[in-house]
Amino acid sequence: MRVSAVGALLLTAGSAWAQTAATASTERIAALEKANTANATAIASAQSAGDNAWMLVSAALVLMMSGPGLALFYGGLVRKKNILATMMQTFAMMAIITVLWALFGYSLAFAPGHGALAPYIGGFQNVFLHGVGTDPGPYAATIPSQTFMVYQLMFAIITPALITGAFAERMKFSAMVVFLILWAILVYSPMAHMVWGVGGLLNTTGGKFPCLDFAGGTVVHVTSGVSALVTALYIGKRVGYPQKPMPPHSVVLSFIGACLLWVGWFGFNAGSALAASGLATSAFVATHFAAAAAACGWLAAEWIRNGKPSALGGISGAVAGLVGITPAAGFVTPMAALWIGLITGVFCFYMVVKVKNIFGYDDSLDAFGVHGSGGTLGAILTGLFARAFVNKGTNIDGFFAGNHKQLLNQFIGVAIAWVISIVGTLIILFVVDKLIGLRVSEEDEREGLDITQHGEEGYDWDVA
Amino acid sequence: MQKIEAVIQPSKLEAVKDALVEAGIAGITILEARGHGRQKGHTEFYRGREYAVDLLPKIKLEVVVTDDMAEKAIQAIITAARTGRIGDGKIFVSKIDEAIRIRNDERGEIAL
User: Long-range contact list for A423-427, CB < 8 A, 24+ apart?
Assistant: First the structure.
């Protein structure tokens, strides 16, 4: 910024020199210099060190949700011959989506759109991160544009990674890479633009259907969860499912992963305030309360139904509650957060243990059961419980506060997320299936993806 | 000479070993085993799905003793391994024709 300011100063100074007499130009330079200094001071004061520090920490916390959080959570839930392959699916997203985001993913999500497409997808103004520097941008007044960009990148990473839970233990690594790159472009970026982008269809600042989604209930959890269900149905069940037992090989790893998710979620939800503000605190509290209530809800339901409260049940419930509160985090009171958590926890329990078995689909690690159903329910509960006084910036009440129309907007947001996820995912799966083939051979599946896809083993106890 | 084979709960191994030493039995061999008796394992629940685990971890222990020590060893194992619950295990006793110490060719009871 300093270089460009000096450059502008010199240029203007140059033209001034040509147009006026020497004495007049000296005065003019002095005036310009003064104006520039004032401008720089204004930008510097708008930047907040506190906000930027919190947002950088939040970005790191959200990345921690992917690797190690999600990677361990999912890794422990598969059989031991597939742990590395499962963890690699999340790790590959950390690397690949980052490059994609830098090249054009960010632009497609957050640059202003063009013409009739403007409400649906961003334009190309920020391709190669053009114009995304260290000055504040249109999305947050007090942090550098690059901070906002990298924070949003972490969401773009974990969203496709969540889908991998549905097709665990049977998809080719190559097919997974192509599938999720296309998915990030065709499903994630448009959805993020619609909800959060300038001029987006569902944006609460001027969109046609203002849909409350504080930290990604529709953008992250509905899209990933519904796409997960579509993928599980398209790719088919694992060999031997459901006759052959396929219990998690290490609930211990899953436990650590889930607890890292819980901690990382503070960056996910409280960071979505985009400032180290009171709103961030409110979202932090709501997030924690909902996770706790949901863990209690799942454990209670399980205790009643199976006679024992399990560790896997407890952590699954916590994740369900975190999903449920994500859209609502910045709009609800702490007591509403407890309710949202409790309801989501019990609901997801029944989706996972009952509904999945009734329909017989092999959503291996319950990506739909937890994220798709929890995200959908959370978005609707947001429309019920939102209070304008919690978030004065958005200032939208929910159903219980008398704004009945908001519930309809929430349904519209969820419906759009379902439609774009189903249609987009089906098209991509069809293309990738024809090009590469989605599944590994039955023989490879029996041997395990660690060896057949990556040539290594997660555990080798025989090596001294 | 008699061979006493006992299938016991892994958690009872230490107690059984101590009891055998106290009874004056020197040699012992143990094997990690998996199996079930009449009660057939237990069930585990993962996210609502029930898995029957019918091969449970067990310890199989073998001692070969002189005829007059056999009953003493059996009683030592029973006392130390019993919890009174299902899955405590079983003891099998069989005759041994010969015992040979590899180090010096000693045969019979002296080799034990």
Answer: A424/A183, A424/A186, A424/A187, A424/A227, A425/A183, A425/A187, A425/A226, A425/A227, A425/A230, A425/A231, A425/A234, A426/A230, A426/A234, A427/A186
Are residues A364 and A169 in contact, defined by beta-carbon separation less than 8 angstroms? yes
Closest CB to A354 among B46, B48, B52: B48
Interface mutation target, options B43, B46, B51, chain A, most CBs of A under 10 Å: B46
- pLDDT score recorded for residue A440: 97
Instruction: Single out the residue of A352, A356, A353, A346 nearest to residue A321, CA to CA.
Output: A346
Mean per-residue pLDDT over chain A, rounded: 93
Q: Which residues of A touch B48 (CB under 8 A)?
A: 302, 305-306, 349, 352-354, 357
Whole-number pLDDT of residue A40: 62
Residue (of A214, A65, A284, A46) closest to A145 by Cα position: A46
For a pLDDT cut of 90, what percent of chain A falls above it?
87
CB pairs under 8 A between A and B: 31
Tell me how far apart the terminal alpha carbons of chain A are, to the nearest angstrom. Answer: 57
C-alpha distance from B21 to closest chain A C-alpha (Å):
32
Which DSSP helix (H) or strand (E) runs through B94?
strand B89-95
Q: Extract the tokens encoding A318.
A: 């916590």
Sequence letter at residue B91: I
Residues of B in contact with A308 (CB under 8 A): 45
| Token digits of residue A393 | 């910036």
Please report the ipTM that was assigned to this predicted complex: 0.72
Predicted confidence (pLDDT) at residue A22 exceeds the cutoff of 80: no
Q: Which of A387, A391, A390 is nearest to A403 (CA)?
A: A387
B43 lies within 8 A of chain A by CB: no
pLDDT digits (tens, 9 = 90+) for A189-233: 999 999 999 999 999 988 999 999 999 999 999 999 999 999 999
- Whether this prediction's pTM lies above 0.95 is answered by no
Say whether A312 and B49 touch across the interface (CB within 8 A). Answer: no
Confidence label for B51 from pLDDT (cuts 50, 70 and 90): confident
Q: Is A353 close to B48, i.e. CB distance below 8 A?
A: yes
Read off the pLDDT of each residue in A366-394 and give the average, rounded to a whole number: 97
**In this model, does residue A360 exceed pLDDT 60?**
yes
CB contact under 8 A, A357 and B48: yes
In order, the DSSP letters of A93-130 are HHHHHHHHIIIIIHHHHHS---GGGTTTS--STTGGGT
Average pLDDT over residues A393-414: 96
Q: Which of A247, A316, A357 sits opposite B44 (nearest CB)?
A: A247
pLDDT in tens, A109-145: 999 999 999 999 999 999 999 999 999 999 999 999 9
